[in-house]
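To close the chapter, one final illustration. This time we ask the reader to focus less on the individual chains and more on the assembly as a whole: which components sit near each other, and how the overall shape emerges from the parts.
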Amino acid sequence: MSSALRVAVIGAGYWGPNLARNFHNSADWELAAICDLDAGRAEALARRFTGTAAVSELSAVLEDPDIDAVAIATPARTHHAIATAALTAGKHVLVEKPLADSGLHGRSMAEMAERCGLVLMADHTYCYTPAVMKIRELIEAGELGDILFIDSVRINLGLIQPDVDVLWDLAPHDLSIIDFILPGGLRPLSVSAQGADPLGAGKACIGYLTLPLANGAVAHVHVNWLSPTKIRTMIIGGSKRTLVWDDLNPQQRVSVYDRGVDLQTQRVGGVDRRAAMVSYRLGDTWSPALVEREPLDAMAAEFAASIREGRAPRTDAGSGLRVLEVLEAASRSLAEAAAPPRGPEDPAARALVGELA
Amino acid sequence: MSSALRVAVIGAGYWGPNLARNFHNSADWELAAICDLDAGRAEALARRFTGTAAVSELSAVLEDPDIDAVAIATPARTHHAIATAALTAGKHVLVEKPLADSGLHGRSMAEMAERCGLVLMADHTYCYTPAVMKIRELIEAGELGDILFIDSVRINLGLIQPDVDVLWDLAPHDLSIIDFILPGGLRPLSVSAQGADPLGAGKACIGYLTLPLANGAVAHVHVNWLSPTKIRTMIIGGSKRTLVWDDLNPQQRVSVYDRGVDLQTQRVGGVDRRAAMVSYRLGDTWSPALVEREPLDAMAAEFAASIREGRAPRTDAGSGLRVLEVLEAASRSLAEAAAPPRGPEDPAARALVGELA
Amino acid sequence: MSSALRVAVIGAGYWGPNLARNFHNSADWELAAICDLDAGRAEALARRFTGTAAVSELSAVLEDPDIDAVAIATPARTHHAIATAALTAGKHVLVEKPLADSGLHGRSMAEMAERCGLVLMADHTYCYTPAVMKIRELIEAGELGDILFIDSVRINLGLIQPDVDVLWDLAPHDLSIIDFILPGGLRPLSVSAQGADPLGAGKACIGYLTLPLANGAVAHVHVNWLSPTKIRTMIIGGSKRTLVWDDLNPQQRVSVYDRGVDLQTQRVGGVDRRAAMVSYRLGDTWSPALVEREPLDAMAAEFAASIREGRAPRTDAGSGLRVLEVLEAASRSLAEAAAPPRGPEDPAARALVGELA
Amino acid sequence: MSSALRVAVIGAGYWGPNLARNFHNSADWELAAICDLDAGRAEALARRFTGTAAVSELSAVLEDPDIDAVAIATPARTHHAIATAALTAGKHVLVEKPLADSGLHGRSMAEMAERCGLVLMADHTYCYTPAVMKIRELIEAGELGDILFIDSVRINLGLIQPDVDVLWDLAPHDLSIIDFILPGGLRPLSVSAQGADPLGAGKACIGYLTLPLANGAVAHVHVNWLSPTKIRTMIIGGSKRTLVWDDLNPQQRVSVYDRGVDLQTQRVGGVDRRAAMVSYRLGDTWSPALVEREPLDAMAAEFAASIREGRAPRTDAGSGLRVLEVLEAASRSLAEAAAPPRGPEDPAARALVGELA
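The assembled structure is written out below.
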């Protein structure tokens, strides 16, 4: 292997230490520096590794010609400025989810990376878990047939975030996973969002997203900060088989059910009739063994490979943008629903669906 | 006890036998007759009991002065005509869910019962399960505090019905339960429905309902005929405690979690701020013992009691109407969303998956 | 098919009605009579079927030349006398588990059936469940490799039986299943039993059975009347794969794990060493679809087939005897362990917990 | 608080780093040194902390007058020599489980600690988990009533250890927990062990322990290295309530069932009869909230407190000895069962309990 690439982690808060540890342990990477405005925090993190500098000025990282890439783990509202500066300085960039705080900012980052010929990668960590990689592989191989529906639930007693609602906090996980496993990425025909704020927290603490897909399929996401039980389940219904991913069942995370409904078309009096001829398959269930690997380790490897091979990473800026656009459409849908006065016949409901631009 | 009331069961198909058996076993009732247009079917069912007549003409039942009540277990489109005839003949009426095939029909039935001073009861069977009766009791006693959200999931590989979509087939269960347990009944501010028909069955096989409630609360229902795994779960989040009902876990159907999020209002610079002051309760979980009783037996007893006491039954015509109105609003919501011509993606839809030529 | 065989069910208590219903529904059988000393009970059961006589005298059944077989569902202590009379009268015999109340009685019944050329079948109902039939089929096909261990747990809050301990009440299920699935039947090298009677009920309410098998394998059974949670699980470890049967998980009763430990023998300094070379397989899990069929229906079919084909049934007298012999050995093992006078701790035992004076 | 105590961790292999990290993080302790014969390993571990020395000679630790205590995390066969030297040098001693490789060694260590007036503590880590501390507290408060039975299962695909069998490897966990929660500690009336080595690994890979307790109660332990599914469950049946601890269910580890069997004594003809009068309680289930705390942190605190207060720690040498004695008795029980040479017909089996006819 060629010599290791050198990376700086920007932001030593909640997520930065995880990135730092995985870059440090990766044969592909050398962890050159930790950068945080809070010098003490940068130092405390850098001290855990040998040969890693602590800096409190972003410019110190960007001006260092030996640094190949930066990994940004700062609040979303700062992503655009930092990534732009880094790309301008010729660094490859990895950005924690969501890619940016708006589609506008995200698109500007993606265009700049394109123009500079640099890698801009979204840190959609879940996509590098063994379960999600296996799901993508199965769908790609046609094991499920055509995707008919995806139902994702991610609920738990959760920290009410000061700056974002539950959709922006949790749904990026579901959306980035759906984008990753669907052959053409996540391209909903429209976005309809429902939210509730029963505690008066000033933002939705419960959120539902409905995303009609091509060919009559649908994806639905339920995220919730107020549930006393933790559920993280995704059901992916296909025309051939259906897959259930239960992320909280370490003994059987992924199950593939060879069950389903078959419709046969029948011409009756010159008209196609389908529903009349339903048959059910009740076949075996199968649960693939998953190779244990820390997802951030796989992501670090993919970041390095995409840089070396001059290609887009698996979770590229495009995937980050598609997630962002759904989130923005969801916010518009929520705002429209809330806008008109709620009359008894609720005309608001009619304006509801948040059509994607 | 006064002497038993006499009932005739109309319809000897899928549900009629269950009603017949429970009326037969009830001390409150004498099962006088089984009525079905198919005389053979009526006879086969009546033969299981002693002293029960089999008739194939509704008039034979309605003209019998010794019959106090009829229980209607025929297709929904026939409910209005049969119930109207029965009420006109002075019989009390129990109707299988849904109350009628339209709100118009339902309201006409309710008004006639009112006018005649007769009991019109909706057979919302789930409301008479020990679990739902306990949930109602706990909410009534204030154990959960104010209801913040209800999330109901009822999915399984299911028979695609010839005449109704998945919302009309399955959601009456969820809606009648929610109507039963909410102190003022189910009175959503609006109804938003999403459906999907990825198999091209001609009707929604997957359905989502979002029902904003007063005070920022929300109820959401997910029904699905295409899921390989069976889930029947309702989460009821309250300001004091949260309840989870898992109907498929006979060892612990109902769990009450003394967990949740508390927000404190704080005045900062003349402005109320809440989210900043969040605290979490992580208390005990408690699962009440449930007395085993067949729900239809409890329902038969309630039907008799309401007749004898001249009062509305627990699941009265009003509850049937509220369920019907949500279903109708859901159908309107689906129709509106589907209204615009789909354009270029339609032909694609025809090439669908699952097509078994 | 040749004309149906005619059977009489002896005993109309707890189990008899289940046998009667299944014989009645079987195309192989005609349910000729119900026999019970309590004439009213016999009549009540016979009335549910058309063409079934009710009799209170066993001789009426045995002297009827048109009756081919009897199914005995009376208390175990009566099995020997009734079966002997029936065989003498030339009837084929099915006996509810356990085959008899002692090995001596069981052997005498088996010998008489042999001598008379009649079928004597043990009603080991569990062996005819789809799960157990699939397990037997998988083991027979070599899917699990050699059987290394079987661990069976059958615990629940249970009725304390007046006449038998928990081993005689519940373990016949486990033992008959193990006998059915092991290629050569259940032939333990020894039987070691442990029991406990912590409530002072006068018999073991908790029981453990350890059954060393050939080649170092072992079977272990845990039965318990005092457990607040219901568990019915059997783990069958094989040299190639391991199977887990969870009878209370209708969605996935049988799971086959392609996981295990492989030992390689290595010659080190002229000595075989094995443990040093361990490797682990962590392969897929697979859960076969099971065809739904009521086990008693399959059993009735097997009883008819064995009579018609003049062959031993799948659960023949030999299997009933092997189960009986393990139960008898278990009772001896319990008695030996309890033999020495308990001395000073006995008075303590009387002061026990649970004593409600 | 008085100034921190100073501790050296002996052994930097598998368990030492966990001890080191917890002592380092504890306000009660200063992590003075890491000692390992392998100097490189000692250094690698010491480097993770500030102010912690790395030494490769035990004497360097024992001769340091500023060191108050040592924590021994070396193989069991070395515990006696190291602990004896440490006690002689006036150090308090914590020993990883099991306390020693024999009861003889364990007793000698306990006597020396007693003589020297020093603390000798067994590192029974599980006893310091929130679940086990809660169980002990509930039993102590009489919530379960008298203990009737304990059934412990600890099975998983496990590393076949080179030097010990599965009983010595895994059962110390179960035994130390049982010792901790039973009011008078674990004092079985006898010890019966069954083992199996179906792979020919040269030692038991599957083990069962039956421990009759006073008053007819019983404890049973199942440990297994060959199970494809991981189970860690303990059922503790009491005369008032029964507790189930499922260590793999983080959402509900401890459940208390208010269910059970009540026997009433009835005098019939001058004789006490009990079983005839059985009644069942089917009350609520309750699951206490457990405070999250790393068990080794609680253990480090208890070690410090016992030293400062000059008292025995909760898991003192006596508890370590009781566990050792059961393990030794179990090995004797296994050896007796296996004693005679295993011929083809296995005469050994005949010496066993429960001889088959």
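The mean pLDDT of chain B is 90. The interface with chain D takes residues 252, 258-259, 282-289 of chain B (CB under 8 Å). With these observations in hand, you are ready for the problems at the end of the chapter.
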